[in-house]
Amino acid sequence: MILAFRNTCTVFSHYVLNPKPYFPLLLISTQNFSVPNSTLTSSSPSLCNKARCCSTFFTNSMAAGDLSNPSSEKLEKQFEDFRHHLEESGNLRERIRVVATEIESVTRHIYASLLLVHQSRPVAEVLEKAKSQIGELKELYSRLSEIVRECPGQYFRYHGDWKSETQIVVSLLAFMHWLETGTLVLHNEVEEKLGLTPTEFGLDVEDYLIGICFMSNELPRYVVNQVTAGDYDCPRKVLKFLTDLHAAFRMLNLRNDFLRKKFDGMKYDLRKVEEVFYDVKIRGLAANGDSAGEKQVQGQS
To answer: Where does the chain cross the membrane (predicted)?
Structure first.
C-alpha cells in the first residue's frame, strides 16, 4: 500500500511540475495502482488546494481584465461606429443604383429610337421621338443630385455607381446633336441639357470624353447606310468631323486607362470612314465639294 501511494504521488507531482504532462502515463499509473480516495485526500491536501487556488486566480484575473480594460471599450465603440457608417453608405448606394437603373432604362429607349436613322428614316422624325425623353433624363439626374447632396464632398466616392450610364447618355446626346447640327456638342451644353450644375453636381470630364468616343463608334455604320441609300456626300462630312475630333483628342496627354483605349479605337472608326469615302470617290460618286477632310487625313498620314 505504501509503495502504491508513493507511485501515485510521483505521477501527480510529475503532472503538476511538467508543462507537457504525459497523460497516458497518468492513466496507466492510476489504473495499475488503485488508492482509496480518503487516503489520497488526507495525504495530499496541499496539492488539491494549490490546484483550486490557481484555477480561481486565473478565472478572477480574466474576468477583472475584461471589465476594467478601457481599450476593449474603445475598440467596441470604434467598430460600432464603423457598422453605422457602412450601413448608411450601403443604403445610399442602393438609392443611387435605383436611379441609375432608371437612367439606363431611358437610354435604351432613346437608343432604340435613334437606331431608326440607320434605316434611312427622316432625321427630323427620329430626333423628335428621341428628344421627347430628354426631359425624363433631366428629372432622374435631379433626383440623383439630391441623393448625392446628402453626403457633401463624397461625389467621387459614389461616382462609379452611375458613371457608365452617364457615358452612354453623353454618347446619345452627342449623336443627336451631330445629326441636327453636324458639330460636336460641348461639355457645358450636355450639362445644360441634363440640368447639371458644375458647383454641386456636374458632369465629369472623363465621362464626357468617353461618351464622345462611344458616339464615334456609330458614325461608320451611319456612313455605310447613308451611301447605300444614295447620300454620297455623307462620307466626306463625317470624315471631316472625325478628323477634327481625332486631332483634338491628340492634344490630350492620356494615361493607359479606359479612356486611352477608347481613343485608340477612334482611329479605327476614322479608317473605316476613309475607306468608304475613297471607294465613293474612286467610283466617281462623290460630290465636287469641299475636300478638306481628305486633305487633313493626307496631312496626318
So the answer is: none
